[in-house]
Structures are given as structure tokens and as C-alpha cells.
Amino acid sequence: LTMSIREQTDSGKPTVVADPDGPVALIYKEIARKIAVKVAEKAKDMSSKFPSIVIKND
Predict the structure, then answer these.
(1) Where are the domains of the chain?
(2) Does residue 8 register a pLDDT over 80?
(3) Contact 15, 9 (CB under 8 A)
(4) DSSP per position, 1-39
(5) Residues 23, 24, 29, 34: is their CA dihedral positive or negative?
(6) Which of 13, 23, 46, 55 could form a disulfide with 18 if both were Cys (CB 3.0 to 4.6 A apart)?
């Protein structure tokens, strides 16, 4: 860890909030973008997330 990361974290202010345009924050943001792309590329099968709906005419 860099000293600034430790100090900012200890003070309760994440690096990306404390210095949003700083070099460390830019690295974190780039990592987050890459992860977001990887997650978005994954196939999504949401069929198991919803119950089956049955309509009956009784």
C-alpha cells in the first residue's frame, strides 16, 4: 500500500473519494471498468430467478 491509501482509509475516506483524479484512484477506476466489462460479457440465464406462472381456466 502507498502511504496515502493507508492514511485515507484510516480516516474513513476511500482513495477514489479523497482524490478522485489522483493516480491511485485512476488505477482503481480502470480495474473497476475492466471487471464491469467481464461481468457484462458473461451469459445471463435469469430463468431460474423467476417462478413459473400458470394460468388456468377453471
Answers:
(1) 3-41
(2) yes
(3) yes
(4) --HHHHHHHHTT--HHHHSTTSHHHHHHHHHHHHHHHHH
(5) positive
(6) 13
- Predicted local confidence at residue 20, as pLDDT: 94
In which band, very low, low, confident or very high, does the pLDDT at 18 lie, cut at 50, 70 and 90? very high
CB atoms within 10 A of CB 28: 15
Extract the C-alpha cell encoding 33: 471498468
Tell me the residue type at 40. A
Terminal CA-CA length for the chain = 67
| pTM (two decimals) | 0.62
**Closest to 31 measured CA to CA, from 12, 42, 15:** 15
